[in-house]
Amino acid sequence: MSTGSRLLLPALVGLLPGRPTPDSILLRGSVRARTGHPIALAEIRLQKGEEPIPPGPPDAIAGEDGTFEVPAPAPGTYALWASAPGYLDGRAGPLEVKEGATVEGIEVSLFSVGKTAATITVLDMEGAPLEGVSVEASSTGFALGTPVRTVSGPDGKARFEALNAAATNFKMRLKGEGASEGCVVETQASRGLKSSEEFVLEIRLGRPSRSFEGKALDASGAPIAKGRVVAVFEPDMTERFSFTGGSAPAGPDGTYRVAGLVAGEYRLRLFGVPPGGGPERLLAERAGARPGGGAIDLAVSPDLPTLVEGNCVDVDSGRPLVASEARLEIGGKIVATDKTDGDGRFSFAAHLSKEGPNILRVTHRRFGYEERWLRPEEVRPDGRYPELAFSVSRKKPEDR
């Protein structure tokens, strides 16, 4: 299957990682199509035993005549994989190699599936082009699945000159300017490519150009210098992309700015060390916040909130339950709510009562509801309630 750039020339093979030395274990052979003709510039990767092949450049590039030479790092059992545009990945091995040995005559045969050009157009939710989106294409269901990567231009188009004419998975990722680690908008799509026509696909992603900013303040109004603000994205289940949110530290004067966010609703959370000391914990939460407006100050109250988290699973299928509603009632009033996300998880902050019952009701679509009583004495020193798990089944208990 096709891999990234094909600009390397046979004369540059010696410049690749793993250049042979006089004491190297060498593996030599050729890459050919099933028809017998050599395949020029095929990428060669070495696999030791059953270990997965790590991402990165190939170990060698075949010459114009399809021949290659690749060094093995140590004695052992290896397999050689070859990939080229328009062909399924091919494998030779297992090969037993010894110290100082040279293995000759290795043949890797590739099966032609044809190739095609592809253009992926990435737009934001308003239809404007998105530049700088990383687009990765990899054929599915075949041996190596070596991905091909490119980046969308100012017109939002990401172009591939030669992809295998086969089932292909496309992954799109975009990180906004100033975004924290892991603050990435992602989506993917699988399509069948044909060699008889150029493939065209349009994808919509949220534009990660919005931010929250403000100050982190303690109960007296003084700045919290070492706090950490986390913006938790609250999906409405209509998005065709995945995004979790971002974070940022508070500066010496308590100011923060969480950047690289998409439009939508968030929970803004302030974490830090409480006034009396101890481990970092949740200090404040602001639900229903939307980025792009005015400054939002996060002020800590004398009574610190508890972070309640849990997950919901359909035990019959093992799949997460999406859009289950978690609702906390205290004294007959609803004080906090959330809905499970695509992973079946919910999360909210609340001040638990020490007098009346804290009733957590989780309602599942088509499954009814479950209730738990939350006890303040079970809250951990870090302000988190022990993880809650809810499961449902259509089967009778005796049939599970």
How would you sum up this structure, described in words?
This protein is an all-beta fold. 0% of the residues lie in helices and 48% in strands. It has no helices and 29 strands. It has strands at 25-33, 43-48, 60-61, 67-72, 76-83, 90-97, 102-110, 115-123, 134-139, 148-151, 157-164, 167-174, 185-192, 199-204, 210-217, 228-234, 245-249, 255-261, 265-272, 281-289, 298-299, 306-314, 319-320, 325-330, 333-339, 345-350, 358-364, 368-374, 388-392. A four-stranded antiparallel sheet has the order 3-2-5-6, with no helix packed on it. A hairpin with an 8-residue loop joins strand 19 (265-272) and strand 20 (281-289). Mean pLDDT is 88; it is low at 1-22.
Would you kindly provide a brief summary of this structure?
This protein is mostly beta strands and about 400 residues long.
Main features:
4-stranded antiparallel beta sheet; single chain; mainly beta; disordered N terminus; 400 residues
Task: List the SSEs and their pairings.
Layout: E1 25-33, E2 43-48, E3 60-61, E4 67-72, E5 76-83, E6 90-97, E7 102-110, E8 115-123, E9 134-139, E10 148-151, E11 157-164, E12 167-174, E13 185-192, E14 199-204, E15 210-217, E16 228-234, E17 245-249, E18 255-261, E19 265-272, E20 281-289, E21 298-299, E22 306-314, E23 319-320, E24 325-330, E25 333-339, E26 345-350, E27 358-364, E28 368-374, E29 388-392
